[in-house]
Design a protein that fits this description.
Elements (H helix, E strand, L loop, with lengths): L4 E7 L18 H9 L1 E3 L2 E2 L5 H10 L3 H4 L15 H7 L3 E7 L15 E5 L9 E4 L2 E4 L4 H15 L6 E6 L37 H4 L11 H4 L13 H36 L6 E7 L18 H4 L3 E4 L8 E3 L3 E2 L3 H8 L4 H4 L9 H4 L10 E6 L12 E6 L2 E6 L17 E6 L17 H17 L20 H16 L2
Parallel strand pairs: 1-8, 1-9, 2-11, 3-12, 4-5, 4-8
Antiparallel strand pairs: 2-10, 6-7, 9-10, 13-14, 14-15, 15-16
Helix pairs in contact: 1-8, 5-8
The structure holds calcium ion.
Keywords: Glycoprotein, Hydrolase, Signal
Family: Belongs to the sulfatase family.
Protein name: Sulfatase
Length: about 500
């Protein structure tokens, strides 16, 4: 029996509600839908820290941010815990990584355990990007999503027959600044993209912490994102709604055009596997490092624990074991990926990657139940020092029925960073009565018992994963990385400029 191959395709900031297999109202993704049609659509996969670098470190190591140390985009990977790629490589797999790495590109933070790799420095560019490989840096001509796919196809073709392999295909798209390929520029004409139902959320019941985030389309989306200035007649508080609608069409047009290239290129990769006779025995995963607000609640970006940001799309095709057209509603987090991928490759993570905090969900892929599978996901966001987005420190728990979030009011320890500090606040959402999370019921007496039970579950999960609850400014926290006061000053100027131009 040949060993199973793994192709892990991950885009950057691609929300599930911009995939037609998930019922998108805004676009069609026929090639991503092929993975769902021929395999499994997973409906409750959540990230444990909704931002780029932390999610990547969590996926590689099977651990929470406080264990692997990558708590923010300013922190680089230092391999204080090993990765599932290390294990696969030690077990005879050929391994490769192409595209957005975003865990540092110098010295010890470079990709490790890969036979072949070629990555963007930092966020990378969409057009004619610089790329780094073991030989050094060079400019690669073309569009990023095509380039990454070309590298993936070429590498598959170089493998020997029956050589088991694991390949990570990490798209830069559709991350800011959403630069589409010229061949997709005709799609999604102005005015044709429907606005979400929660677009004009007035935040009436929300915490102060959430009301203060700098992620609004109205006031925080600037000329760098839109590639044009807000016209004079749409500026000012009284033009807020008209300005939002105008910006939304530009934002979503560019975002969805970027996704169109991903969809095309996933189709190329799937076709290639079929032509090479590799489809049957290869697990193909499509996911994104986290979700994204597509105008939901009037926002763009991610970070918060609302579902559009928290949910990772996850489509998996593996004809040898996954029945076509199946779905799973089990609650899974990105901490579970490493153990699962090792299991699929015939390796027991509890033995070979004992530092992993995750658990293999492979039986779920076969349609089996796991009796004592977790019924909640624990989440923690650490990047509250970021002056651009001003997203608050928080942790919380999400079950199938409810979500409890604690904004614990941590101060900011970085000179020059945003100084928003709050009293601790709670939010509670009833996901059946209020699936779009519009009504915070944390202080509703009818839900007092629910809140108490969830607070208990939150503490239980925090203890299970060895995370420390916040008890004041002296509470230990992961190091934040090599930040620089001058950079913070520049970022704050950027925010002030963007907000002033609205
Ligand atoms: Ca991301």
């Amino acid at each position: 029996m040949p060993r199973t191959n793994l192709i892990f395709i991950m885009s950057d900031d691609h929300a599930a509600h911009a995939i037609s297999a998930y019922g998108s109202r805004v676009n069609q993704t026929p090639n991503l839908d092929r993975i769902a049609r021929d395999g499994m659509r997973m409906d409750a996969v959540f990230c444990t820290n909704s931002i780029c670098s932390p999610s990547r470190a969590t996926i590689l190591t099977g651990t929470y941010s406080h264990i692997n140390g990558v708590a923010s985009i300013w922190t680089e990977m230092d391999y204080r815990v090993p990765t599932f790629v290390d294990v696969l490589h030690d077990n005879g797999y050929k391994t490769a990584m192409f595209g957005k790495w975003h865990l540092g590109e110098r010295g010890k933070s470079l990709p490790r355990g890969f036979d072949a790799w070629k990555i963007f420095p930092g966020q990378g560019d969409y057009v004619d990007p610089e790329m780094i490989d073991p030989k050094g840096a060079s400019v690669v001509t073309g569009y990023a999503t095509d380039i990454i796919t070309d590298l993936a196809l070429d590498w598959i073709d170089e493998l020997g027959a029956d050589q088991p392999f694991a390949m990570m295909v990490h798209h830069k798209a559709p991350h800011r600044p959403w630069v589409p390929d010229v061949k997709h520029k005709h799609l999604y004409a102005d005015g044709t993209i429907p606005e979400p139902d929660t677009f004009f959320d007035d935040y009436a019941t929300r915490s102060k912490a959430v009301r203060g985030v700098h992620m609004t389309i109205a006031d925080d989306m600037g000329a760098d994102d839109l590639k044009t200035e807000v016209p004079e007649h749409l500026r000012g508080p009284e033009k807020r709604h008209a300005r939002m609608s105008w910006k939304y069409q530009i934002y979503m047009r560019d975002y969805l055009q970027c996704i169109q290239s991903i969809d095309d290129n996933v189709g190329r990769l799937l076709d290639h596997l079929e032509e090479r006779g590799l489809a049957e025995n290869t697990l193909v995963v499509y996911t994104s490092d986290q979700g994204f607000f597509l105008g939901d609640h009037g926002w763009f970006d991610k970070r918060l624990m609302f579902d559009q940001s928290l949910q990772m799309p996850m489509l998996m095709r593996w004809p040898a074991e996954i029945e076509a057209g199946t779905r799973s509603e089990a609650i899974i987090t990105n901490v579970d990926f490493a153990a699962t991928f090792l299991d699929v490759c015939g390796i027991d993570a509890t033995v070979e990657l004992p530092t992993s905090q995750g658990r293999s969900f492979r039986p779920l892929l076969r349609g089996e139940q796991i009796e004592d599978w977790a019924d909640a996901a624990y989440y923690r966001y650490w990047e509250h020092d970021d002056p651009i987005h001003a997203a608050p420190a928080h942790y919380g728990i999400r079950t199938a029925d409810y979500k409890l979030i604690y904004y614990y009011g941590a101060g900011l320890g970085v000179p020059g960073a945003s100084d928003r500090i709050f009293e601790p606040e709670w939010e509670l959402y009833d996901l059946h009565q209020d699936p779009t999370e519009m009504r915070n019921i944390a202080d509703d007496p009818d839900y007092a018992d629910v809140r108490e039970a969830l607070a208990g579950k939150l503490a239980e999960y925090q203890a299970r994963y060895g995370d420390e609850p916040y008890v004041g400014p002296d509470t230990p926290r992961p190091e934040w990385g090599p930040y620089d006061v001058e950079i913070f000053d520049q970022l704050q100027e950027y925010v002030q400029r963007a907000r002033a131009a609205n």
